[in-house]
Amino acid sequence: MTSRRKFLGAAGATLIAPQLSACGGVDKLPVASVPASGFGADATAEQVTEGLDLRGKLAVVTGCTSGIGFETMRVLAKRGVNVVGTSRSKTRAEEACRKVIGSTIAAQLDLADFDSVARCADDIHTLRSPIDILINNAGYRGGGNERQLINGVEKHFVINHLGHFILTNRLMDRLYMSTQGRIVNVASRAAYRGAPDEGIWFDDLAMSSEYSDSLAYGQSKLANVLFSLKLAELLRGTRITTNSLHPGVINTDIDRNLNPITRFGFGVLTALNGKTIEEGAATSCYVATSSKLGNISGRYFEDCDAITIENKGHMQDMAMADKLLQKSIELTADWLVEFKAPRKQDFE
Ligand SMILES: NC(=O)c1ccc[n+]([C@@H]2O[C@H](COP(=O)([O-])OP(=O)(O)OC[C@H]3O[C@@H](n4cnc5c(N)ncnc54)[C@H](OP(=O)(O)O)[C@@H]3O)[C@@H](O)[C@H]2O)c1
Per DSSP, what are the bridge partners of residue 23? Predict the structure, then answer.
């Protein structure tokens, strides 16, 4: 079985249809083939979706209980989207949903537990609806530089990448049923600033040879970008697109595991040079909904615009993306599903 079929089962799917220009030796170049958004770093999620009527659409937003995920869910719901918001705790997801005006559904999802990921996808299937938008937003960042393993694999890689890898696979049939399905992977500029210089350490995913939280977080975020790049290739010729992004630097609970001094420093940094949460959700909402991006796939966005990163990192490394797909399949094979063409009665 080819990796394409194993992951997507998308054989059937093919039948249908700068924040800074240079920074620390990194050149950020606009992508000429992607229309400019017209928005900047200070645009909010409400501004980038102004005037959109998204009634009738269904979105899944992972990690809806705080920070960027909550604001993303809030604004999409405000524009008429029916949003499934997830949390490790169903109660917390319900609380977040109650705070939002619009139509929302709470779901339980722990990305560190692959059985939970499978159950969450099964729960979403019971809605019997196409999925128009999947925002893989939830994220974990460790503190204290204590390496933790889940089934022998370093924890950031499991939660930030492998959990979302399985979820995406298991929801693919519903994305396929949308008139234009969009997968948005919330990565980070840590993908080129914090990941190992060599890229993903496929031969040591436990990170036993060297470990720091930033290295592990960066590696997992590089995996988000490369997964998106590879998935776009696999989905070429379908109506599903996938893109990744850096939301900005925002004072959210992502720093919850840092020690108080580092946390304070992060607070100062974001106050001086960061975005508000309303601004932090803008790129996710823009990439998920803009009519300018209907056929744009495999791109990486910052401040609502597609850019390429030159001189640093592995963001466009297709060989590494290929290897990531193979390795991810190997590590999650027991939880992946093969594509089954949805039946008409699934939606009645
Ligand atoms: N804030 C920044 O400066 C920044 C910069 C670059 C990238 N990002 C990325 O933006 C995304 C959102 O982060 P944020 O800043 O909004 O952080 P946040 O406030 O900490 O939100 C993270 C969300 O992820 C969920 N989550 C955490 N661990 C999980 C797990 N094991 N399984 C399922 N859900 C889990 C949390 O929900 P529960 O605790 O309720 O489960 C929470 O809703 C992340 O992917 C992060 O890496 C953030």
Answer: 26
